[in-house]
Design brief:
With 216 residues, the chain is mostly helical. It contains nine helices and no strands. The structure holds heme C (HEC) (2 copies).
Length: 216
């Protein structure tokens, strides 16, 4: 009987010891390259990371292809805490979620889900240019809430409204103010400090053709 009491008391202390140890355990570190048992999909990232914290400035992040092609920079900005801008860094749970997703190759859906939307080929249409060029390279600043809200480029209608000042009224578009700004050797758009890749030759050509055709 005495021995049994002794064992019970001992067990009590051991369990107390364990529970304080648990409480004081440090915040789990982010584990690189160890995906959690269930790999997150784009919709998890969209619902938990992008919509609540990023979309208001980076409108392009509603598009899978845009996020996929920028995934390393997105992860880096989130892990370092430089993004979201002017807001506290994301918590460790969200950082790990994003890290797991990128480590797993940034899947759109799980295995038995649908295929990711195919990248839209570059063509002189709003559908193609907005997804390939204007959202990823301009709209994160040029939207109604962005830092360059004075020139909203997020809809075709907004481009149309700029036709006199920026688009040379659809004539000789290669020499319009918009193209001058895009091609400016010293202070181009997107700005050098943004680290956003400048428009390549093909993109510039498609943009000119799109405007000359009256923004189809
Ligand atoms: C309040 C607006 C705002 C929010 C919210 C925001 N960003 Fe940004 N982001 C910017 C601006 C502006 C820049 C351009 C660089 C700068 O000003 O720091 C930028 C730049 C970036 C860049 C490019 C920087 C680089 O190193 O190449 C990435 C990637 C990025 N943001 C990711 C995100 C992610 C991911 C989120 C959400 C977790 C987010 N941002 C939330 C405004 C924002
Ligand atoms: C990272 C933010 C950012 C991105 C991305 C960006 N811009 Fe800008 N843009 C600005 C800011 C800020 C200004 C105002 C200050 C200035 O002219 O530098 C501006 C100004 C402009 C102007 C007016 C210039 C003037 O002096 O009248 C045009 C036109 C323009 N941007 C077009 C674009 C186009 C087209 C893209 C994409 C190819 C783009 N911008 C991408 C931030 C951005």
């Amino acid at each position: 009987m005495k021995i049994l009491n002794y064992i019970l008391i001992l067990m009590f202390f051991i369990s107390c010891g364990n529970s304080t140890e648990f409480k004081e355990s440090p915040i789990p570190q982010i584990q690189r390259n160890t995906p959690s048992p269930v790999t997150p999909t784009f919709s998890d990232i969209e619902e938990r990371v992008l919509k609540p914290n990023c979309i208001q400035c980076h409108a392009g992040y509603s598009d899978y292809q845009v996020v996929f092609s920028g995934k390393e920079k997105i992860l880096e900005a989130v892990l370092k805490g430089t993004m979201p801008k002017n807001a506290p860094a994301l918590n460790n749970e969200l950082k790990s979620l994003l890290n797991d997703w990128v480590s797993a190759g940034a899947p759109f859906e799980d295995d038995d889900g649908e295929d990711p939307p195919a990248p839209i080929e570059l063509a002189p249409t709003w559908e193609s240019l907005s997804k390939n060029v204007i959202f990823p390279k301009c709209v994160q600043c040029h939207n109604p809430n962005g830092q360059a809200s004075f020139l909203d480029l997020s809809t075709r209608q907004k481009f149309f409204e700029q036709r006199v000042d920026y688009l040379n009224n659809f004539e000789d578009v290669a020499n319009s103010y918009l193209l001058e700004v895009i091609n400016d050797p010293d202070e181009p758009m997107p700005p050098v400090w943004s680290n956003i890749e400048r428009l390549n030759e093909k993109e510039v050509k498609a943009l000119i053709e799109w405007i000359e055709n009256g923004l189809p």
